[in-house]
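Deliverable D4.2, example record:
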Amino acid sequence: MTELRERDIPHKEENGIDNSKLAMEGSTEKVGLKREVTLISGIALIVGTMIGSGIFVSPKGVLRQTESVGMSLIIWCLCGVISMFGSLCYAELGTVVQKSGAEYAYLYQSLGPIPAYLFSWTSIIILKPSSVAAIALSFGAYIADPFFPDDCEPPVMAVKLFAAICILLIVFINCASVKWATTVQNFFTAAKLLALVIIIVIGFINICKGNTEYLKVSTSFEGSATKLFAYGVAFYQGLWAYDGWNQLNYITEELIEPNKNLPRAIIIGIPLVTILYLLVNISYFTVMSPDELLASGAVAVTFAQRTLGPMAWIMPVFVCFSTFGAANGSLFTSGRLAYVAAREGHMVEVISMVHVKRYTPFPALVFTSCLAILMLIPSDFDSLVNYFSFSAWLFYGGTVVALLVLRYTEPDIPRPIKVPIVIPIIVLVCSVYLVFAPIIDEPALEFLWAFLFIVAGLIFYFPFVHFRYHPKFMGKVTRFFQLLFEVAPSSYEVPEVGQEM
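Output generated by the structure prediction step:
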């Protein structure tokens, strides 16, 4: 990979600005991201980002597609297995290519700059901001609800206003301090785990009481869907709830002892989420029939109303905690992707800079949060997310190909963790299925437009990246934002492949 020059802010200038003026007087410390993320914080980031609003609000998507309780539980289990296999592949890649940016870094290392650029283009402009926006909208809906009568839905504008406030609050926390962001993540992860434990305990009590009518093996598979490709949509619904299994790979450069803590966090975090999801779904069916679950607008709230009595109000509070924590984790990692892409010259230079006192990727976080707030504006936001979902698995599959390519091109480099070859092959097959199954099951022109948007990134790649054309006014823009944000080019040394950083 193209090596980046080391930048020492007290002694060098960038774009005509003496960076030493932005740092503390007399300081010789280089500006860059620090290794402050511990194993516990890494687990909290994975678990806290994976557990958002999906398992609390709408697990009915899987049930609607599978059409039976038994098959829905199998899909939830298989989604956990796929996520685990995918994360194990990422664990190997993360200990070989020890750079932040996850898919971007791995695609760049093995397949070159064009696939990496197309991934960053799609993810930074659409996928990551829309994910933050979607989670923030769930937060906004639950925060707004108490301000309006029970028989009145909160106005869309009020929900979007609270969602925007949520995004502004988390970007402030993330820009202020990495420790603040990880502390927030740890707290809200603990809160959402407590909520899931409450649901599971109540479910076990109901099972002991004999409320297992919808969980009997003899009847739970009746009416299961027979269309093969319909299960692709069911997997999308389930994997949306599992989304976040790769989040720790976005901050490898900030993880303490990544060779040890990256695989440890993955091996602990993802099985934990899988077990919790299965038990929570089982608990729901001890209280609600499949038809009642499908009719519920917020399954966990309905569950609480039927089991907790006057204490039912705690579930909406826990959903707010869960969505806020998930939005925090998503923005934390999304900013790192924009930062790394800009550092490689695939975005404007100022986004690759770091705050000289707080050591956070300030411009990247601000840029991502602004896009997320813009995502709140359109009324057809859900369609945008749905039609771009296939692209996530397109790039997951490409990343697994990157692993196989590195196995072939770099067979002798140290691999602290090396997964059996059958695991990446399984993930690759699943990725191909998940890319094409929804398109075959429900063909729509929007999928073509989404694909064309991905390819359209090449319009910007060739002039601005490949041929390195830089408009003259960009120097002034960079200097303006550098002074405004008090940021400087980051000091970074590219490690050898497989080397501990």
